[in-house]
Each structure stands twice: as C-alpha cells, then as structure tokens.
Amino acid sequence: MPLHMIKLVVGCDTIEDLLDWHAGQGRPWIMHTRQTPKRASELLEGGSLYRVFKGMILCRQHILAVDTVGEGVTARCEVTVDPKIVRVAPTPRRAFQGWRYLDGKDAPPDLDGGEDGEIPPELARQLREAGAW
C-alpha cells in the first residue's frame, strides 16, 4: 500500500475555496512545509496529499514531487501535487500541526460520483459520523 501525507487546509473552508484560490495561477500546485519527509521516496510511489477541512478529510491530490529548497536553517520543503482533486469519503480528523504520514490502510476511500452525482459534504459528514457510510 502506498504511503500518503495528510495536512490541514488553512484559509479555505471548502474544496471550492481551494480551487478558487488556485484558479488562474498557471503554475504547479505546491504545498510548502518546513520539514522534508524522511520517507519521501515512499510518498512518490503512488502517494497522495490528503487535505483536512474543518476537521474532515475531504479530498486528496496525487504527489508528483518532493523537493528540499535552500540549505541550513533556511531549508524548506516543497511538495508538488497534481491539480486534479479527488474527493474522498468525508472522514473526521482531529487538528494537528504540520503534516503527518497516512498509511494506505487508514486512507478514506475515493468517492466515485456514481449515478446520483455528488453528495453534499455536510450530509456525507453526518452519514459518516452516524456510521451509515
């Protein structure tokens, strides 16, 4: 199973806010962080960046590259992700600082959209919390 990364989204309340924020930038989507993952090679073997909005994992993006920029105390990490967003089954997640690894077995399943189209995120969250999904 691939290794993933999970990170809180700050400044956006919904997936649509995130898309609006990146619209028209014309450059790769890059997530900046201070620490370069020690298991970066595992992340590049099919891993994704799972995003947490207001305590719920709602989507993921495939990780394309993990690069360390700068040296010494000014070094930081840039994680380049695919601009395509894949919605996942809303899954509660407590707040944390920075980013964390997420094992493939613990990752929420992708939503397929199905014939009924997309389910509203709030309804999906309630169904998940009730154990019906």
Q: Please state roughly what percent of the residues sit in beta strands, choosing from under 5%, 5-15%, 15-25%, 25-35%, 35-45% or over 45%.
A: 35-45%
N-to-C CA distance: 23 Å
Structural class: alpha+beta
Average residue-wise pLDDT: 86
Radius of gyration: 15 Å
Order of helices and strands: EHEHEEEEEH
Helix content: 10-25%
Total E-strand runs: 7
Instruction: State the shape.
Output: globular
Q: Report on the biggest sheet.
A: 7 strands, mixed
Unreliable stretches (pLDDT < 50, length at least 5) are none
Task: Specify the number of helices.
Answer: 3
Structural summary, described in words:
The protein is α+β, with helices and mostly antiparallel strands and 133 residues long. Helices cover 17% and strands 37% of the residues. The chain contains three helices and seven strands; from the N terminus they run E-H-E-H-E-E-E-E-E-H. Strands 1, 2, 3, 4, 5, 6 and 7 form a seven-stranded mixed sheet that branches. A hairpin with a 6-residue loop joins strand 4 (56-69) and strand 5 (76-81). The longest helix has 10 residues, at 121-130. It is globular, with a radius of gyration of 15 Å. The two termini are 23 Å apart. The mean pLDDT is 86.
